[in-house]
Amino acid sequence: MQKKILIVDDDADIRFALSLLLSQTGCQVFEADSPKQCLQLLERVSPDLILLDLNFTQDTTSGKEGIALLKQLVPLGRKVILMTAWANTELVVQGLQLGAVNFIEKPWKKAGLLNKINQHIYVQSDRSQSLDWVAESEPMQHIEQLIQNLAMTDANILILGENGTGKSLLAKRIHELSQRNAQAFEALNMAAIPETLFESELFGHKKGAFTDAKQDRKGAFLRAEKGTLFLDEIGTLPFHLQPKLLQVLENGSFTQLGAEQNLQANVRLISATNQDLADAIEQGQFRQDLYYRINTFTITIPPLRDRKDDILPLANSLLAKFADKYQKEIPLLSPSTKQILLQHDWQGNVRELSHAMERALLLSMGADINPEHLQLVKVSKQSTEEVPNLSLDELEKQRIINALEQHQGQISVAAKSLGISRNALYRRLEKHDLAGIE
């Protein structure tokens, strides 16, 4: 589903520049030159984001017209980013207090502008959430609607899905929508816990409870008190340890190792697995009673290849996240790149897409993302091998080659584009046996 952005500004040049920039990101752009035209447009268009100038021709410096319009937009549930050429801190604070989600000062920097827009346009809820959570496809919109209802309950939820589909993101999303969102979200990977430390990790221990217990330690149930406890890879929990977890879920209490007093468990439990637990029950590897306890509701996340409408929004969201991480401008996806992304099988799901976008951002040198930057590897469905990633040295070498090719072997220019000195670039050329490439 194409995102819609409404620009409200009386300056035609500003509207033109913004429209040109935002249309290249794949968004549908609408324009209004006054508060009156904005309100008229909202009668037939429902934008995902409004870029609102605070100063109009009738009152060019006070921001009164912009603030007055903001007061009408926020109660309508509109998401608004403020724009002004006047660095009026008091006015900005007033706008943010009234419900604007962010602020942009003119003249803007392209990277900063796109980062702020991406941070808000892909957020699906009033509450904060990870940019990686995108629900544009029909299956994910169905899940979004479901968790909007389930989140406000304390029902235990079991999340199913292939590796990399975003099970932990969904668990965090449920927590953020819940009444427990002001408390801790504690995630525990069950596959990573040694059997000898299982009770200590879940329930905690007292000093001296065993040889290496040098001090008291809270377990996951206490760390997540009044919040959400997420048990990832629950299907890997050894059969002989499952009764210990079942006892807590049945009785609502547990005892720390080395302690005598029972403690009450006050958590919302979310579990996840990529295994078929029904089959594990038949094979005698998973307890049926524990299964019933952890899955009051079951949510299955479809693989990325089955929700094509999420691929490009996810790719753009991930590019925005990594651009912020590496302090780079957000590159655009070329038409041919978009086609490849949509056709790729994504056996690694969102995790594979995330790695691909991070790698492409670094290889693109800030320009558009082209097919050669993706370096996608076809993996057969029968293969269990991970898609190989470039090492840091290989990535650095590839970036240097790209920079030199882009700048026709000019060392000074290439070094500047890489953000390093000439001497530093020469040292790296020697390191990677590229001394003759310039």
Features:
single chain; 438 residues; alpha/beta; Rossmann fold; Helicase, Ruva Protein, domain 3; 4 domains; five-stranded parallel sheet; 14 strands; 42% helix
Please, could you describe this protein's structure?
With 438 residues, the chain is α/β, with parallel strands linked by helices. The protein has helices at 12-23, 35-41, 64-73, 89-98, 110-121, 138-150, 167-177, 198-203, 220-223, 242-251, 277-282, 288-294, 311-325, 335-343, 349-363, 371-374, 392-406, 411-418, 422-431, and strands at 4-8, 28-32, 49-53, 80-84, 102-105, 157-160, 185-189, 204-205, 217-218, 228-232, 253-254, 263-264, 268-273, 297-300. It folds into four domains: 4-121, Response regulator (Rossmann fold, 3-Layer(aba) Sandwich); 138-300, P-loop containing nucleotide triphosphate hydrolases (Rossmann fold), CATH 3.40.50.300; 306-388, Helicase, Ruva Protein, domain 3, CATH 1.10.8; 390-438, Arc Repressor Mutant, subunit A (Orthogonal Bundle), CATH 1.10.10.60. It has 19 helices and 14 strands. The strands form four sheets. It has a five-stranded parallel β-sheet, with helices on both faces. Helix 1 links the parallel strand 1 and strand 2 (28-32). Helix 13 (311-325) packs across helix 15 (349-363). The longest helix has 15 residues, at 311-325. The protein starts with a strand and ends in a 7-residue tail after the last helix. The model is unreliable at 123-130 and 380-388 (pLDDT under 50). GO terms for molecular function: ATP binding; sequence-specific DNA binding. The modification 4-aspartylphosphate is found at residue 53. Keywords: ATP-binding, Nucleotide-binding, Phosphoprotein, Transcription, Transcription regulation.
